[in-house]
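Could someone model BIS(adenosine)-5'-pentaphosphate with this protein?
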Amino acid sequence: MAETTRTGIMLIGAPGSGKGTQAKKLKETLGYAHISTGDLLRAAVKAGTELGKQAKSFMDAGALVPDELVIGLLKEAIVKPEADKGFILDGFPRTSVQADALDAEVTLDKVINIKVPFELIEERVTGRRMSKSGHVYHVKYNPPKVEGVCDVTGEELYQRSDDTAAKVKERLDKFVAETEPVIPRYQAKGIVVEVDGVGTPDEVFARISAVL
Ligand code: AP5
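Reply:
Sure, complex below.
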């Protein structure tokens, strides 16, 4: 596939650092497509596709899904018409093999590295609640009006199977071992900006907006 000239922003950060929360806000203001490989994989699991069946056990264990499965998903998403204006990557790349594949497809404009101390991550992740339609809450920081019920759709909220304290530890270990090492290649291109991810979502969004 030829390299696309679409505008791309990557959000990188530990699990629970707020990538999804900030990507949704950026999507609203910029009109770019939000490409979350986690969301795409969860949708595949829910739909019971062959890819979803293969990915499920890795996701439930807090492990990374094999590169070849995720790279295929990303390549499909990045050429969709929704991404014509630009795209926001959330959760990709997570390994150097994925970064190689991405770099062969696109040139990124900016990489936002959202920094949150690991001591705060467990509370953020274990307190997350989701609706089937993808609305995200936090029991303490962003609670729904009625406990356990989505404000927007009225759906029952659930906890992701990988949002337990034990799985968070696995996911953080993977982040340090596999994902953080991809950051220097973008630093070498001068496109990485570190943003403090502590504070309210609006405060973090203001910091991101200021550097874009
Ligand atoms: P994925 O869904 O990408 O999970 P993640 O990277 O672990 O990130 P999270 O979704 O946990 O957190 P986030 O940074 O988006 O934070 P959020 O905004 O939700 O991936 C899940 C799994 O899929 C992986 O483990 C792997 O198995 C697989 N996978 C996905 N991509 C892959 C890839 N490329 N390669 C291989 N495998 C892949 O916020 C978290 C919580 O905190 C929420 O409750 C939110 O309301 C709250 N919150 C957000 N911001 C704030 C704030 N500023 N203050 C207080 N609370 C906040």
